[in-house]
Every structure is written in C-alpha cells, then in structure tokens.
Amino acid sequence: MKDLPKLELHLHHEGAAPPAFIRGLAAEKNVDLSGIFEPDGSYRFDGFTHFLSVYEAATSVLQSPEDYARLTRAVLEQSAEAGVIYTESFVSPDFCGGRDVEAWRDYLHAIREAAEQAERDMGITMRAIVTCIRHFGPEKARETALCAAETVGDFLTGFGMAGDEMKGTPEDFAYAFDMAREAELRITCHSGEWGDPKSIARTLDVLRPERLGHGVRAAEDPRLMERLAESGVVLEVCPGSNVALGVVPDWASHPIERLRRAGVRVTVSTDDPPFFHTGMVREYDRLADTFGWDEEVFRELALTAVDAAFCDDETKTRLR
Ligand code: ADE
Ligand code: ZN
C-alpha cells in the first residue's frame, strides 16, 4: 500500500503535527503541555470536545510564521513517506495571527515557501484551504473569510469550516461562505461527522459546498445518499478518525462502503493522523482488510480525489 500514489483532501495542518514536534516547540518556548500527552508520548484526549481542546492546546506553541514553516515541512515529510503525492491542508487564520489580514499574509507566505521547498525535495504538492472554526462563532468566521478572500490564489484555493458541528446553524455562517464564494474560493464544509442527515441537507442548501468534510451520517438516509450521488458532491471520508472519535463503533460498521455502493463519490483522508494513531498507509490497509478493496478501488478513489481537488487543471493532469 505504501507505494500506491495517494491524494489526501482532508488534513488539518496542526492536527497533523507529530507529537514530538509539538513537544520540541513547547520546550523551546517554555510552555507546559505535559497534560495533553500519554506516558508513551502520544496525544491524550477523551471524546470529541476534549479532542478539540487538546488540539487547541497543542496549537498554542505554534506562534510565528517560522513555526508554521517548520510544521509544514514536518507534515509534508510524513505524508510523502506514506506515498501521498498531493495534499490539501486546512489552515486557520485564528491560529495564524489571530485573523489579522497582514499577519495572516506572513504566515501563509511562510507555509507556501515551505510547501514549495518540500515539492522540490520530495515531489509532494500541497494546496491550502482556509478553515474557520465553527465553535468560535459567526463573527470570527467572517473575519476568517476576509483573510481568505484577500489571499486567494494558486496556492490558497479553498474555504471551509471545521470545529464543533453541533454549535450554531449553517445560516449563521452563510455570510462568511458567500464572501468566500464571491472571491472564487472553492468550498468544502465539515458536516455529517456528528450532525444528522437533516443538518447535512441544510448545509448543502445554505452553504452550497462542492465537498463535505466527513458526511458519513448521510448513510442513514437513502434519499440524501441519492441527492449526493446525483449532485456529485464529494465526501472527504476519514474512517480511522471516525473510529477513534466514536462516530462509529468499529471499522466493520463504517459506512464508507455503503456510501460508495450507493454511488456517492468518496475519497479517503486521515483528518489528524497522530491524534488517531493513523496515516494514509494504515487507512488503506484497514480498508483493504475490512471491505476487500483492491488496487482498482484505490485507483478509482485517487481519480475521484483528482477530480475533486481544489487545484488548477495543469496540476490535475500531472496527478492523473
Ligand atoms: N478539527 C480537527 N479535526 C476535526 C474534526 N474531526 N472535526 C471537526 N473539527 C476538527
Ligand atoms: Zn476534519
């Protein structure tokens, strides 16, 4: 599986930080993060909302554009090692300069330079998706969308929303998404990881994403699966994350195979790999073991990801 070329469309930049990297930065900056690690050095959390606060605590040691350049290098090395040739990372002005547009420009520049260096060294291509954080509220989402709109280009190509899906309604965030769409950013949104089929339908109606982060609870409603299949909305499915966070009890009951068989376009990603003790090779291995997926299925998945990628056509041609 390691050698199969992989594309990853759903990766949180800070969530992909190796724990040792975060511990190293904490030591440099004299920040005590001992509470967020297990004795074996992995991240420690208990349930989704605790996961979000551990994530934010780990992120607190990333304090400068230079820190983000180092993070970008560490994350892309990890992905390239797993055979990933193209990755889209969620980056948040909330963590990069507190949504100040000029500070955000500096962070984005540092991330981009590190990504271009990694592409030269390791052949991995990265694009960035600005992501607002739902539980930070609609006002901050608007400021985040403004940062995205001011810096959209061939590297920063998308806008999305992560965070606690049970907070607020899609309508609360419509202004931010409309601003992003007007700036010609491509749109994705976390929905249907925790939210029910009705809330997924509302997200599709109001925020009009072309991809959904997770979206797996759509499998509870055949009519919604039909709608997704017909409209071609692509799901960024992260099975290992769903198992680790308790969205589903185990791999065997994960709905990815049912979604795929219903004609829904699915892709596979890791979300926050070190948090969930996973990586793209492990996801592929588990999918092969659990559902009997072979190279042909993984090839189909990769082609879906190329089609759904938020990058230019020239890059897509190269990836195919
Ligand atoms: N931020 C990082 N990982 C996330 C997830 N799985 N769901 C929502 N927000 C997130
Ligand atoms: Zn996510």
From TrEMBL:
Entry keyword Repeat:
no
Instruction: Read off the NCBIfam families from this record.
Output: aden_deam, PRK09358.1-3
Q: Which species expresses this protein natively?
A: Palleronia caenipelagi
| The protein's required cofactors | Zn(2+)
Q: What is its EC number?
A: 3.5.4.4
**UniProt xrefs under InterPro entries:** A_deaminase_dom (IPR001365), Ado/ade_deaminase (IPR006330), Metal_Hydrolase (IPR032466)
State any single GO MF term.
metal ion binding
- UniProt KW keywords: Hydrolase, Metal-binding, Zinc
- Pfam family name, one: A_deaminase
Adenosine deaminase domain mapped to chain residues: 5-320
Protein name listed in UniProt: Adenosine deaminase
Q: Which family does it belong to?
A: Belongs to the metallo-dependent hydrolases superfamily. Adenosine and AMP deaminases family.
Q: Which Gene3D superfamilies match?
A: Metal-dependent hydrolases
